[in-house]
Each structure stands twice: as C-alpha cells, then as structure tokens.
C-alpha cells in the first residue's frame, strides 16, 4: 500500500487547535454527513438506545441527531472551542467537569445526559473511562490520524467496541503524492490489515 510522501507526515495537536481558532474547518459538515444518513440502518442494525462513539468529533451535527433518536453519544476532541460551539449551536445546556483519570481533560455533558464529549487526546481514553460502544461513526478520524499512529488508533478503537458493534468508516481516495493531507489517504488494503 503506497501512501506516497504521506507516510511520515505529522500534524501536531497545536495545528489542529489552530485550524479551529482560525475557522479553517472545511471538514465540518453543517448539514450532517449524507453517508451516515444513507447507511444509518447498518450502524443501528435494528437496535435502539445504542451507545455511539464519535472519535475526533469536532462539532458534528450528527451527535445531536442520534441523541434525538434516543441513542447515547460519546465524542472525543482536542479542541475545547469545537465542543463549546457544538452545544452553543444546538442551544443545548451542558455542564463541564474534570476527568479525574486524565490530567487536564474535561468532560462536557448535556444536561439531558445523553451527550458526553471529552476534551483530550483520543489516546488518553480507555474503556475503563468511557465504557464500550455499540456503534462507531468514524467520519474523519482515521483519515486525520497521523499515518504512523494508525495502528495505535485502531488498536484503541477495537478495545472500545462491544462484541456486536458496527463501525462505519469514511475514507477518501486520491493520489497521495499530489496532496499532503489531512485527510490522509488510507488504502482499502491497509484498512483490512488494520481492522482484520
């Protein structure tokens, strides 16, 4: 799987925070992602009241959409600004509390209790902190993770999944020598190798 010049590319946490501060968030979809709407039945698989995980969630509108359907949503994001904007843009009251197990981390929880968003590095999370999930909506996480961290990321995700969970993954296909990423190019062969 040739990912070209992207193999060694590293985007720092500071660069991601700067994208949010500058409003350089072309990856955010105001109307929600059409592929989630199209494949929602695959994620839910006829089940209700699921726990759904949004890795590197930003301020994804789908979190509110799924919570309104009766599911419990958990997200993680390094940008506190993104999480505050999510609650503000949906007029959702929330409370903020520290996460004792993770130094400097915060949890933003909707007053209704069905949306919990963690402000920290995804690699600080574990199932002992956030539990396990029935579904994962990975719309922009695997393609945003630095290529050298993919195995670490997928290994973590696997530990967060319940036995019968569904994992919806969106990737992008292009010539990795013509764009430095993110989003990074993740060939299908690599996805199969990572997730088995």
TrEMBL record:
Pfam families: TPMT (PF05724)
Example of a GO cellular component annotation carried by this entry: cytoplasm
Key words, A-Z: Cytoplasm, Methyltransferase, S-adenosyl-L-methionine, Transferase
Coiled coil location: none
InterPro entries (alphabetical): SAM-dependent_MTases_sf, Thiopurine_S-MeTrfase, TPMT
Substrates-to-products reaction catalysed: S-adenosyl-L-methionine + a thiopurine = S-adenosyl-L-homocysteine + a thiopurine S-methylether
Record: residues binding S-adenosyl-L-methionine: 16-27, 56, 77, 121-122, 139
Molecular function terms, GO-annotated: thiopurine S-methyltransferase activity
PROSITE patterns reported for this sequence: SAM_MT_TPMT
Family annotation (SUPFAM superfamilies): S-adenosyl-L-methionine-dependent methyltransferases (SSF53335)
Top-rank EC class of the record's enzyme: transferase
Any one Gene Ontology BP term: methylation
This enzyme's EC code(s): 2.1.1.67
Location in the cell: Cytoplasm
Family stated for the protein in its record: Belongs to the class I-like SAM-binding methyltransferase superfamily. TPMT family.
Protein name per UniProt: thiopurine S-methyltransferase
Source organism of this protein record: Trogon melanurus
Organism placement in taxonomy: Eukaryota, Metazoa, Chordata, Craniata, Vertebrata
Gene (UniProt): Tpmt
